[in-house]
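Narrative of accomplishments. A recurring question from our advisory board has been how the design workflow behaves on a single, concrete structure rather than in aggregate. To address it, we present the structure tokens for one chain from the evaluation set, followed by the sequence designed for it. No filtering or post-editing was applied between the two.
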């Protein structure tokens, strides 16, 4: 090994050590690329957003048409820059949207106090609508006395659907259980299951995922089990909805769940009212982190970390602001960002786009045309390292000595 190469190797090692151990190496929060609002003079909101196969976006919620006081289920499709291509209204309210394998959409929500499932084509035109009630036949479309609200939806590998939410028995006095409904590709019920204590307390679900083993994981909250108050809750079933295990997360206070995903390692990540919980494939908690604020949505990012979206009232401009947090794979915060104005602004969805950037969607009272509108923000994914002066000095010395040694070697006879 030449003396020059040996010296350069030592300098490079010292430089790498300086970068890794010197405090002050941080990451900058992303900047806004563009933002859009959607809605009229009435109350407009969306609780679910997806990126579509053409690189655009679709979100679902409800819209108060012309401030009439009547809310309609609402589906909006945009291009990759957030420009609305079309929007459609339907009976009921929407809480979750997925793009189906045929390029259309399936949306879950509530109609006449029943679970609602709507199927559309790629342009949002309704193909069929189904509603489900555990206490009356499908042909009975009268308003239920009991409340049954669907929140989570997934298209299953067999082309059908699984939807979940909460169901109230007519005599429960407002107490609820989790209800899971499995349908075929036309929305016809194949089977259904309930989970909870039989309607003695409030148990609910907000998300369902089909797991890698073909079963289902249902995420929500429970007052029936756990440490006290309300706890975040996962129920894991087999492919036919039979319970395999359930786990609760939280302490003696109220700890609700906003979203849940199955992670790349087969475990689960939960966005809770107090932070982020990571479990193994059997629901055993591996770690949990808090960041301030509360979260309604999360995704696992391409680098193996997590992005979470929700609301915070301890910083920013308004009563509540969008709260956006990025972590590494172990839940350690890398950066955070707030967005908002003088009104109440709360994020309900986050996706990582195919270009690596992030999309946040939620409701805003600070901007837009009316009482409350949907707000969509596209941010950069660029994470620019901020090196300390010590690291920059090490870089300068290394480069200078490397150039000097190279010239000296060239000058030798």
């Amino acid at each position: 090994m030449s003396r020059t190469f040996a010296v350069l190797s030592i300098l490079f090692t010292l430089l790498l050590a300086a970068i890794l151990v010197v405090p002050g190496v941080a990451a900058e929060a992303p900047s806004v690329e563009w933002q859009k609002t959607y809605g009229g003079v009435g109350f407009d909101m969306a609780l679910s957003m997806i990126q579509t196969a053409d690189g655009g976006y679709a979100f679902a919620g409800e819209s108060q048409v012309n401030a009439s006081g009547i809310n309609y289920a609402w589906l909006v499709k945009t291009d990759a820059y957030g420009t609305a291509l079309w929007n459609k209204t339907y009976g009921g309210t929407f809480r979750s949207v997925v793009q189906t394998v045929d390029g259309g959409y399936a949306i879950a929500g509530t109609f006449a106090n029943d679970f609602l499932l709507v199927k559309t084509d790629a342009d949002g035109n309704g193909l069929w609508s189904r509603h489900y009630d555990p206490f009356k036949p499908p042909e009975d479309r009268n308003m239920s006395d009991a409340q049954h609200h669907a929140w989570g939806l997934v298209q299953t590998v067999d082309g059908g659907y699984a939807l979940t939410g909460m169901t109230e028995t007519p005599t429960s006095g407002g107490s609820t259980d989790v209800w899971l409904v499995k349908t075929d590709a036309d929305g016809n019920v194949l089977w259904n299951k309930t989970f909870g204590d039989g309607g003695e307390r409030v148990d609910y679900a907000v998300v369902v995922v089909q797991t890698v083993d073909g079963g289902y994981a249902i995420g929500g909250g429970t007052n029936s089990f756990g440490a006290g108050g309300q706890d975040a809750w996962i129920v894991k079933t087999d492919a036919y909805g039979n319970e395999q295990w359930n786990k609760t997360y939280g302490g003696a206070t109220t700890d609700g769940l906003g979203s849940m995903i199955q992670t790349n390692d087969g475990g689960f990540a939960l966005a809770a009212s107090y932070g982020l919980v990571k479990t193994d494939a059997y629901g055993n908690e591996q770690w949990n982190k808090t960041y301030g604020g509360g979260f309604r949505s999360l995704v696992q990012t391409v680098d193996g970390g997590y992005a979470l979206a929700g609301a915070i009232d301890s910083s920013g401009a308004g009563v509540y602001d969008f709260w956006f947090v990025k972590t590494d794979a172990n839940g350690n915060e890398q950066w955070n960002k707030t967005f908002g104005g003088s009104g109440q602004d709360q994020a309900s969805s986050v996706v990582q786009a195919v270009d690596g950037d992030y999309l946040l969607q939620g409701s805003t009272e600070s901007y837009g045309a009316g009482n409350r509108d949907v707000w969509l923000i596209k941010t950069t994914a660029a994470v620019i390292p901020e090196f300390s002066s010590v690291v920059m000095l090490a870089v300068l010395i290394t480069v200078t000595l490397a150039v000097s040694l190279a010239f000296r070697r060239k000058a030798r006879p």
